[in-house]
Write a structure and sequence with these properties.
Layout (H helix, E strand, L loop, with lengths): L9 H8 L6 E7 L2 E10 L2 E7 L2 H30 L6 E3 L5 E4 L9 H16 L6 E3 L2 E3 L3 E2 L20 H8 L5 E7 L5 E8 L2 E7 L2 H17 L3 H6 L1
Antiparallel strand pairs: 1-2, 2-3, 4-5, 6-7, 8-9, 9-10, 10-11
Helix pairs in contact: 1-2, 4-5
Length: 236
């Protein structure tokens, strides 16, 4: 069962089911903070999602589409159940012999993909983390980056933060932030994703290393709270 169903995000499920359907992104600057709208089109219908992270905007657009896709399927099954008589038809073979019951045709719906999506949503809803175990006297820790020791939060954001380290700056301005790592791709080149939540606002960063992904996550948070964009400095 584990081989058949594993947790998958809405974007992963959508990419597997609709490989050739592009997801478009639009930028929307608002109060010096860049937000994104992801849109996709299926059968002439448009589905969208908004977020300050490009990846999360895509996730929301895919989630909206998959939710409607599942709702339509459930509605169709309910209607067919009401219309279909309860009598079971039997196939009549030669010499009037009765063979196996003639059931309804098998439906072509990606239930395993939705099971993977449901498992992903359940894990996120319950905020599950890997369990700490001991094997051969070696302790394995959950894949959560421990926050830096609280050194007292800054009372004021630095006037010229371009020489500051974004990770250290977040630890100073918002002590106690927990960062959660996710391996997006273990193949070369590898891709990591780091998420954090600050004051009920979620931030995401991606990079080829865990440190790079964490840095991008902190840059997104700094841009949101203090309207300073480290990426704009690096691009200049």
């Amino acid at each position: 069962m584990r081989r058949l169903v594993s947790p998958k995000s809405p974007l992963m499920v959508f990419s597997e089911l609709f490989k050739d359907v592009p997801i478009h992104l639009q930028e929307h600057p608002l109060h010096n903070v860049m937000s994104y709208t992801a849109t996709l089109e299926i059968d002439g219908q448009m589905y969208s999602g908004n977020h300050i992270s490009k990846t999360q905007a895509k996730q929301k657009a895919c989630e909206n589409f998959l939710r409607i896709m599942l709702a339509k399927k459930i509605s169709e099954r309910s209607e067919k159940k009401e219309e279909t008589p309860m009598d079971v038809k039997m196939e009549i073979g030669e010499n009037s012999s009765v063979s196996k019951p003639k059931g309804p045709p098998q439906e072509d719906f990606p239930w395993p993909h939705f099971a993977s999506l449901a498992m992903h949503n359940l894990i996120n809803q319950w905020e599950l983390q890997p369990v700490v175990t001991k094997a051969n006297y070696v302790q394995e820790e959950p894949n959560v980056i421990k926050p830096q020791p609280k050194a007292g939060a800054m009372r004021k954001f630095p006037e010229n933060p371009k020489n500051c380290n974004p990770i250290q700056l977040i630890n100073q301005m918002k002590p106690g932030v927990k960062f959660v790592e996710t391996i997006i791709s273990s193949k070369t080149p590898s891709l990591f994703q780091v998420n954090c939540v600050i004051e009920d606002v979620s931030f995401t960063g991606q990079g080829s290393t865990k440190k790079a992904a964490k840095k991008e996550c902190c840059i997104a948070a700094i841009k949101f709270f203090w309207q300073f964009d480290f990426n704009a400095i690096e691009n200049n």
